[in-house]
Sequence to fold (124 residues):
Amino acid sequence: QLQLVESGGGSVQFGGNLRLSCSASGLALDDAGVAWFRQAPGKEREGVSAISDVRGGASVVYGDSGKGGFTISRDNAKNIVYLQMNDLKPEETAVYYCAADHDYRGLNQHYDCWGRGTQVTVTI
Fold:
């Protein structure tokens, strides 16, 4: 059964760092495009970052919300995609989701598989 699970969220102070992990079962993430999205209270879900599959050269793209202190990366041996988030700000408080698809979709939200999300809260 194909499943994505996010972890690594939590509460952090303004300027702090977190690393989110997206792990998969039933899917080799190095053979899939993977993206991170986030949804803040009362706002639409937005794209943070995406990484193409290995055949696509593992190219990365960052949305406006992911530029600056965010870095997406893979650990193919562990079948995990990470989102390193540095210098976090309160306005980055949101539920962060990972999504995957055999077809790389960049920051388009039409991915086939989604995790349930992990809460990130940035306090002053």
